[in-house]
Amino acid sequence: xxxxxxxxxxxxxxxxxxxxxxxxxxxxxxxxxxxxxxxxxxxxxxxxxxxxxxxxxxxxxxxxxxxxxxxxxxxxxxxxxxxxxxxxxxxxxxxxxxxxxxxxxxxxxxxxxxxxxxxxxxxxxxxxxxxxxxxxxxxxxxxxxxxxxxxxxxxxxxxxxxxxxxxxxxxxxxxxxxxxxxxxxxxxxxxxxxxxxxxxxxxxxxxxxxxxxxxxxxxxxxxxxxxxxxxxxxxxxxxxxxxxxxxxxxxxxxxxxxxxxxxxxxxxxxxxxxxxxxxxxxxxxxxxxxxxxxxxxxxxxxxxxxxxxxxxxxxxxxxxxxxxxxxxxxxxxxxxxxxxxxxxxxxxxxxxxxxxxxxxxxxxxxxxxxxxxxxxxxxxxxxxxxxxxxxxxxxxxxxxxxxxxxxxxxxxxxxxxxxxxxxxxxxxx
Length: 429
Prior knowledge:
The protein is mainly beta. The protein has 1 helix and 33 strands. The longest helix has 4 residues, at about 10. The N and C termini lie far apart (about 70 Å).
């Protein structure tokens, strides 16, 4: 029988390993979108304009603030609108806000209690981050309800119960946390059932297009990466990393990587023919994918338990990973080489944190609500500014890239200015 993972309440807030949108100002229709978990490339790299060199003593300027509700769903941005989810009593609520003011544009609420076997000590969600694709917004609730909405007004279009008899997904104790992925008219989600591990549905009709073999689910979100010259769908399941053809669901290869809690959460990183995976207890591994006989051979290059990325996002630059390691306190920010497993440095002083790359800077938000502006390279780590952003701990981490940041905790959503404001030309006054 599996034990209980060592998660203090503040760390449990990071179960979905989320990041919020960090966007170039001004916010308008031409501003680059943050349409999904992890941003445009699902890699926590933001299309950023230059950030301020430092912040005032009281921290970055707060532009607006408003109540929201419980939950860890990250915030999306597109064409002047924000999208996220929260809980209101027994209802899950999908909401669209005006990015300039925080005012509600529309809400869609539906009754959705957590699963009867849900572990309430880590909150009742929702946990997964929505997905924008075309004119549609796709969401997954804490009990596995996949919902397609019209993003313009919130009209529900179709829904599927991933944990119901129709799909047969596996319930996970802290609630469904895998954020959906768009690909060529499909919406792809891990379900973790005995018969179906990962499923792809038609975006327009909600019909099942393909399904992989069964594999238990965890709390990670899938991503598509170019590896060894081929586009591959990676889904970090509870006991393995599963690689599929994103068009058909055909299995390309798999690699066993598990722990006693079934908690594979941190999304694997890839560069060229290399892969990096990390989780609690099992630690980190470097893999090489070698084409062989029409398929692939997976070579294990190195492994270590010194780095265990858990409820966090990381940033990859070349063959280097920058991220926050630690299952329980203390946590360290580390620089690790994917090819060799070399640890260039370990930085103390930050709580468990999420990272987003914005230009040549890292924007880091830790679980105590402290926001950092820093630079990182294999040679070292330097903090340029820090500020308390929240009044209480929460695990929805920083957003995707540029001078405007949208952050939420378990009670409110706030907008901050992180860029150096440019003077308005006289001709425009």
